[in-house]
Amino acid sequence: MTTILIVEDTPSERELMSHYLRESGYSVISAIGAQEALNLATEKQPDAIVTDVVMPGMSGFELCRKLKQTPETQKIPIVICSSKNQEIDRLWGMKQGADAYITKPFTREQLIRAVKSVAA
Questions:
Q1: CA–CA distance, 87 with 44 (Å, rounded to integer)
Q2: Mind giving me the DSSP string for the chain?
Q3: What's the confidence (pLDDT) of residue 37?
């Protein structure tokens, strides 16, 4: 089964993403912040990571960079899911190593399509 790591500090958003992904047949693990996500990504080796950008401590952009710089996690595809919806944010996210970028609010279809595109 394909495992997705969700990194989201807002409980309702995290729950919604988990629900959509589980309904679509994915196994889901979640982290509340970037540091926890780094530890989980190294330990569990998920098939893909879906991360928020605006989080306390380390941003999703910084998380992307760290994951791509770490040999154990550099090949894990990353989907950024953010309320930052400007084209510059999308470009910056991709420059940090993201493989896909979707904006909030998102639909179930947008989330699943983004995850499928990177975790095929």
A1: 32
A2: --EEEEE-SSHHHHHHHHHHHHHTT-EEEEESSHHHHHHHHHHH--SEEEE-S--SSS-HHHHHHHHHHSTTTTTS-EEEEES--SHHHHHHHHHTT-SEEEESS--HHHHHHHHHHH--
A3: 98
Q: What is the CATH number of the domain that holds 110?
A: 3.40.50.2300
The count of domains in the chain is 1
Which pLDDT band, with edges at 50, 70 and 90, does 120 fall under? confident
Report the alpha-carbon distance of residue 58 to residue 75 in Å, rounded: 20
Gap between the terminal Cα atoms of the chain: 12
How far is Cα 3 from Cα 70, in angstroms, rounded to an integer? 19
Whole domain around residue 83: which residue ranges? 3-118
Threshold 0.90, pTM exceeds: yes
